[in-house]
Amino acid sequence: MAAIKKEAPALLPGQPGYWHEACRHLARKDRVMKRLIPQYGDAMLSSRGDAFVTLARSVVGQQISVKAAQSVWDRFAALPASMTPAEVLRLRVDDMRAAGLSARKVEYLVDLALHFDGGKLEPARWQDMDDEAIIAELVAIRGIGRWTAEMFLIFHLLRPNVLPLDDVGLIRGISHNYFSGEPVSRSDAREVAQAWRPWCSVATWYIWRSLDPLPVSY
Q1: Considering the domain boundaries, does residue 174 fall inside one?
Q2: Domain of 135: which CATH number?
């Protein structure tokens, strides 16, 4: 009697259609991925579906831990009636600071809201642009550097092959999983990621999960 092949679970809205294919590729090409992927069951990357919220969460999360970022975001998100650019622009600076945001992050969030509210960004165009073109457009906004733009590519646009070499968690996770904790250079990380292509975003997500049981989310 032939073995019954287990079907992959159906994807939910906001989940990338390539996920199961990517996992099969990574498990076949990379010994660490083969070990990590089964540990997290059906969990996967998913988009919140809102460009402004994704970028705002990325700004809040800059240079702090996932846990700290979630705590600050929860307090900040409770301030406006809804998390829209127009509502954020109505907030008082003192209230934003009291939520745990630095003065600089408040400035960045206001500038981001102004870009969206003023129509300086055209999200409808992004689906037809390549990764580097989108990064170039986003880094023109105050407070958005390459790391934040890459988080946006991964978490909002669900681009499959983003390798965020400026991400401390990725570098630390590669050190832990591939080099027994030894220091890792960007060059080392890039070499490890050769086996991940064209699914670097998926592999990066599993590396993050190996460090923190909380799913990374922006």
Answers
A1: yes
A2: 1.10.340.30
Query: Minimal CA–CA distance to 154: which of 69, 85, 58, 61?
Result: 58
Q: Does residue 5 register a pLDDT over 60?
A: no
CA-based end-to-end distance of the chain = 46
61, pLDDT greater than 90: no
8 or 18: whose pLDDT is higher? 18
- What is the span of the domain harbouring residue 142? 51-155
Burial level of 199, CB count in 10 A (0-12/13-18/19+)? buried
Neighbours of 179 (CB within 10 A): 13
State residue 72's pLDDT score: 96
pLDDT at 109 over 90: yes
The pTM assigned to this predicted structure is 0.85
Q: Is the pLDDT of residue 191 over 50?
A: yes
